[in-house]
């Protein structure tokens, strides 16, 4: 695609062209590397609309890499053919995957001569690439030919600047990223596994018609081959995506990523299944882990996380002793992200899939009453309903221990066209923070449909 006319998208004002320094009229987006993908039957179109926004950074580096510095300091761009040839012919190359760990886990490049897998910087956020990886490895890479890659090439633009600013000169990046390479080589290239994408497709095969290469991902627990990512399978500590095979899913209540694997016997989000003795044991083990992290100044964030968990356990024990809560050994498993029972969550509540949350509810409205599942009006009095999720919504009682009561101030749509959501002002709400003098209503589900068609109610109307 050589150019893009914004008027084709219905944008007014004829802003599809701009004046350059020489006074010539040029099309916007002329040099954009537009990528195309096919979508399997049964899936919505991943990108049905075009949205143009002006932002400070496309991929955040915390302001470390300025946009104006990229053209001058970025690495050399290699076409898919040049990249492929370099991997075949060059001896002294270092491959670096500048994507997040879970992306690397399900697919990565392999050096053909040695079978060596691309380096994994073990990133959870891209902004940590410079401080964690470049700072530790730059000296060792100064006399190497560095090849780095990402999904579409955007992260490499900044990652290469970071590495070059650390004194590494021979920095090269795959132009168009994994996406362009797979278009050229598919299953016959040196990329093995799946390519994670940032929409409902989740991950793409090298060849969309026939997948021939082996699964490269492994279950974080039993190490069996597995590469299916789902938003409901995240680390209970950091909420990063983890690979957990069906067998391990059936026996684990919560999941832990590689970084937090040593915490898997003592750090849990949902404590209602544990008795007091077990909670005390967990707290002691957490305390031992924290004390082992010295000097404290080097591990302050990790130590703070452990301290918060210990405080959480202490409060839970106090509530058990006071009879305010009870042991619930058969409590349903819950999604760490949305806190919903696993039987209700479809995994579309995490990160990039949040915009697709409507997929959980839409398409199942009552034929007899599509405008509102139940009659409710502004001004109706409300209290916590049968599906009130304490983990997600907080206590059912106010600060005085009295059952919460409030008033509906607006009827809204949770997703789609169905009016299935209410905005509530609780009687005990007070203005706080930046909204001094103004109370913001809270939004609750009023009769949306769960995956199995059951009506779910966060709140109910007081007769």
How are the SSEs placed, and which strands pair?
Layout: E1 17-19, E2 25-27, H1 70-73, E3 76-78, H2 80-89, E4 93-97, H3 101-106, E5 107-109, H4 129-141, E6 145-149, H5 154-165, E7 171-174, H6 177-185, E8 191-193, E9 195-196, E10 203-204, H7 246-249, H8 276-292, H9 300-322, E11 381-384, H10 390-393, E12 406-412, E13 421-426, E14 442-449, E15 455-457, E16 459-461
Parallel strand pairs: 3-7, 4-6, 6-7
Antiparallel strand pairs: 1-2, 5-8, 9-10, 11-12, 11-16, 12-13, 13-14, 14-15
What share of the residues lie within helices?
10-25%
User: Would you tell me which CATH topology of the domain at 67-204 applies?
Assistant: Oxidized Rhodanese, domain 1
- Straight-line N-to-C gap: 61 Å
Structural class: alpha+beta
Q: What is the fourth-level CATH superfamily of the domain at 67-204?
A: Rhodanese-like domain
Tell me the number of strands.
16
Biggest sheet strand line-up: 15-14-13-12-11-16
The ordered string of helix (H) and strand (E) elements is EEHEHEHEHEHEHEEEHHHEHEEEEE
CATH structural architecture of the domain at 67-204: 3-Layer(aba) Sandwich
Write down the overall mean pLDDT: 81
* SS field, number of helical segments: 10
Task: Kindly estimate the percentage of residues that lie in beta strands according to DSSP.
Answer: 5-15%
Q: Low-confidence runs (pLDDT<50, min 5 residues)?
A: 1-16, 355-372
């Amino acid at each position: 695609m050589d150019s893009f006319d914004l008027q084709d998208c219905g944008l007014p004002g004829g802003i599809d062209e701009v004046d350059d320094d020489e006074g010539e009229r040029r099309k916007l987006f002329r040099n954009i590397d537009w990528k195309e993908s096919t979508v399997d039957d049964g899936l919505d179109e991943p990108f049905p609309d075009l949205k143009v926004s002006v932002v400070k950074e496309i991929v955040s580096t915390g302001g470390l890499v300025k946009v104006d510095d990229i053209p001058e300091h970025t690495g050399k761009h290699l076409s898919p053919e040049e990249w492929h040839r370099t991997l075949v012919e060059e001896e002294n190359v270092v491959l670096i995957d500048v994507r997040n760990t879970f992306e690397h886990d399900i697919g990565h490049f392999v050096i053909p001569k040695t079978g060596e897998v691309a380096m994994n910087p073990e990133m959870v956020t891209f902004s940590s690439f410079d401080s964690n990886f470049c700072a530790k490895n730059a000296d060792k890479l100064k006399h190497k030919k560095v090849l780095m890659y990402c999904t579409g090439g955007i992260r490499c633009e900044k990652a290469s600047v970071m590495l070059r600013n650390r004194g590494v000169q021979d920095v090269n990046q795959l132009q168009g990223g994994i996406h362009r390479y797979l278009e050229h080589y598919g299953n016959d290239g040196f990329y093995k596994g799946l390519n994670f994408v940032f929409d409902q497709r989740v991950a793409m095969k090298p060849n969309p018609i026939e997948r021939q290469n082996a699964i490269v991902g492994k279950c974080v627990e039993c190490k069996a081959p597995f590469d299916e990512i789902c938003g409901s399978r995240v680390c209970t500590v950091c909420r990063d995506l983890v690979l957990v095979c069906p067998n391990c899913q059936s026996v684990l209540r919560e999941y832990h990523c590689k970084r937090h694997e040593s915490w898997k016997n003592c750090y849990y989000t949902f404590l209602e299944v544990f008795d007091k003795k077990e909670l005390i044991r967990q707290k002691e083990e957490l305390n031992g882990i924290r004390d082992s992290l010295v000097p404290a100044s080097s591990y302050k964030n990790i130590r703070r996380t452990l301290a918060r968990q210990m405080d959480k356990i202490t409060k839970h024990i106090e509530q058990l002793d006071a009879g305010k809560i009870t042991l619930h050994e058969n409590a349903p498993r819950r999604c760490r992200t949305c806190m919903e029972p696993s039987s209700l969550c479809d995994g579309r509540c995490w990160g990039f899939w949040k915009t697709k949350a409507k997929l959980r509810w839409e398409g199942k409205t009552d034929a007899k009453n599509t405008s509102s599942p139940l009659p409710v009006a502004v001004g109706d009095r409300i209290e916590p309903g049968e599906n009130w999720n304490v983990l997600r919504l907080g206590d059912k009682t106010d600060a005085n221990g009295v059952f919460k009561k409030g008033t509906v101030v607006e009827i809204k749509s949770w997703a789609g066209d169905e009016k299935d959501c209410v905005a509530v002002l609780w009687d005990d709400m007070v203005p706080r923070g930046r909204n001094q003098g103004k109370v913001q209503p809270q939004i609750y589900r009023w009769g949306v449909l769960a995956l199995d068609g059951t009506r779910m109610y966060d709140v109910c109307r007081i007769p």
